[in-house]
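Researcher: Here's a chain I'd like modeled. Treat it as a single chain, no partners, no ligands.
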Amino acid sequence: MQEKNLNELQEKIGYKFTDEGLLKNALTHTSYAYEYNVGSLTVN
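Model: Modeled as a single isolated chain. Structure tokens:
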């Protein structure tokens, strides 16, 4: 995920993450991706 997109998201939600890695992990974690049908995933 691009840095610019993370910054825009943080501005929109009005919260600045101290550790942006946590935000990136939350948005790319397989449980999020599966629930919101992001890309193609193989689920065991």
